[in-house]
């Protein structure tokens, strides 16, 4: 690594500064992409609020609840994600997002009509398949709209949809369930997405795709899928980043999807209050942390690109002790505060990590890479995380009672320590891999 030219990857970043979209409409486009991702997250987090009502109506245990909130969604999300990413590298990404959002919004409404566990499971498959097309397309669009040195900040802003959507889903969802029941809540949840689709089609245009060096992509076609996959899997730093992101995402979902149940069961918080109390304690700090870490990564990377993985590593290492503290403290307010600090550690790395992933591949490979990461984080992270906590909770329930869910939430965060190690390992080859992207010809 010492023999590598420092100017090689610096020139790559400098070249890419020149071609990103300049008009102010890029911020409007980013805002609408945030709205799309926000309502996707509302749908995910709403299921956390519905765990106990659905258990009562459908006669489920915690393991089945973990399947319904995790695997039912993530399985089809993952299966559809790779084809969606490949399509996004070849088709108009705006239109693909619009079609996908229409599908998942209508499926969410239909979930309110279900009469049993099997029907809900099937419709959650459709919701997952619909949502799989949003992030690969959005990540690719953002990379064409913003300069290389602004990319971590821009992607961090995009991922603010995670705390925004989670807060809305938990706060408004809990209130609506209390007032109207879970069925009408699902009817209401599907409507905003259809409105966003209309605004997106009327006001957003497809951004021009740019080359690695920031110029217009004149070739106009994506490389073969086999070539794209070979390019991705030859970058060792990308392999470590994929492992790190997946492991930390398991920990995030294992904790986050059970926060509502933990505070209502263990601390006795009324369901109609738990949503806004948890949201206020966790999601504002998460949103601010994402942007600040994204800005810090953009600035520190001017001195050393490895800060884009070092910062996420530091945050990952903090997750387990924070999770352990959050579930061990008996005072509700203090537990909420530590839960909020845990949320910052668990999510503030998004812009830095996902931003550098996009920089490590050619432009018409970006959506495919984003889809691969989504497959890992959704099928493994979102699918395994809630199920892991639910299974641990069922195992310890006979002896630990309500506190068993806390054991699962904290125990799963040991995986975040493992993820932090992979973030650090990614730094060992990051500069070499960035140089190789600059030197690799764009496929014609």
What would you note in describing this structure?
Helices cover 78% and strands 0% of the residues. It is an all-alpha fold and 444 residues long. The chain has a single domain (19-439), classed as MFS general substrate transporter like domains (Growth Hormone, Chain: A, Up-down Bundle), CATH 1.20.1250.20. It is globular. Residues 1-21 and 213-219 have low confidence and may be disordered.
Descriptors for this entry?
mainly alpha, 444 residues, disordered N terminus, globular, Growth Hormone, Chain: A, 0% strand
Provide a quick synopsis of the model.
By secondary structure, the protein is mostly helical. It has a single domain, classed as Up-down Bundle (Growth Hormone, Chain: A). The protein contains 21 helices and no strands.
Main beta sheet strand tally, sense and closure: none
Q: Domains counted in the coordinates: how many?
A: 1
Order of helices and strands: HHHHHHHHHHHHHHHHHHHHH
From the 3D structure, determine the CATH topology.
Growth Hormone, Chain: A
Question: How is this fold's topology laid out?
Answer:
Blueprint: H1 6-16, H2 25-49, H3 51-58, H4 62-88, H5 93-111, H6 117-131, H7 134-145, H8 151-158, H9 161-180, H10 182-203, H11 225-233, H12 236-256, H13 259-265, H14 271-300, H15 307-328, H16 332-347, H17 350-359, H18 366-400, H19 404-411, H20 414-426, H21 430-439
């Amino acid at each position: 690594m010492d023999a590598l030219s420092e100017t090689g990857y610096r020139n790559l970043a400098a070249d890419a500064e020149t071609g990103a979209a300049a008009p102010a409409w890029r911020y409007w486009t980013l805002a609408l992409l945030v709205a799309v991702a926000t309502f996707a997250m509302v749908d995910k987090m709403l299921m956390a609020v519905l765990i106990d009502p659905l258990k009562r109506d459908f006669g489920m245990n915690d393991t089945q609840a973990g399947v319904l909130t995790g695997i039912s969604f993530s399985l089809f999300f993952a299966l559809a994600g790779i084809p969606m990413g490949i399509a996004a590298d070849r088709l108009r990404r705006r239109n693909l997002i619009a079609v996908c959002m229409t599908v998942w919004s209508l499926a969410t409404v239909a979930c309110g009509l279900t009469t049993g566990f099997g029907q809900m499971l099937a419709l959650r498959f459709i919701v997952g398949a619909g949502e799989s097309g949003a992030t690969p397309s959005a990540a690719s669009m953002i990379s064409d709209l913003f300069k290389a040195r602004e990319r971590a900040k821009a992607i961090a802003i995009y991922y603010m949809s995670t705390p925004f959507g989670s807060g809305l889903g938990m706060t408004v969802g809990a209130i609506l369930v209390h007032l109207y029941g879970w069925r009408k809540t699902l009817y209401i949840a599907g409507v905003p997405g259809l409105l966003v689709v209309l605004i997106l089609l009327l006001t957003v245009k497809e951004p021009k795709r740019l080359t690695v060096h920031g110029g217009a992509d004149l070739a106009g076609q994506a490389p073969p899928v086999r070539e794209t996959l070979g390019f991705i899997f030859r970058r060792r730093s990308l392999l470590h980043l994929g492992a790190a992101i997946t492991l930390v995402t398991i920990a995030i979902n294992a904790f986050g999807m059970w926060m509502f149940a933990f505070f209502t069961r263990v601390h006795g918080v009324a369901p109609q209050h738990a949503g806004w109390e948890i949201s206020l304690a966790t999601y504002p700090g998460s949103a601010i942390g994402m942007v600040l870490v994204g800005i810090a990564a953009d600035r520190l990377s001017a001195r050393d690109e490895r800060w884009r993985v070092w910062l996420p590593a530091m945050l990952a290492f903090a997750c387990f002790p924070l999770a352990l503290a959050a579930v061990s403290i008996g005072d509700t307010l203090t537990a909420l505060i530590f839960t909020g600090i845990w949320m910052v550690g668990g999510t503030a790395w998004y812009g830095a990590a996902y931003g550098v992933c996009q920089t490590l591949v050619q432009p018409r490979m970006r959506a495919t890479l984003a889809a691969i990461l989504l497959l890992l984080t959704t099928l493994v992270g979102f699918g395994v995380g809630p199920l892991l906590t639910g299974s641990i909770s069922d195992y310890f329930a006979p002896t630990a009672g309500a506190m068993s869910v806390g054991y699962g939430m904290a125990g799963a965060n040991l995986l975040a320590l493992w993820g932090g190690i992979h973030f650090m390992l990614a730094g060992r080859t990051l500069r070499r891999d960035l140089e190789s992207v600059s030197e690799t010809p764009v496929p014609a």
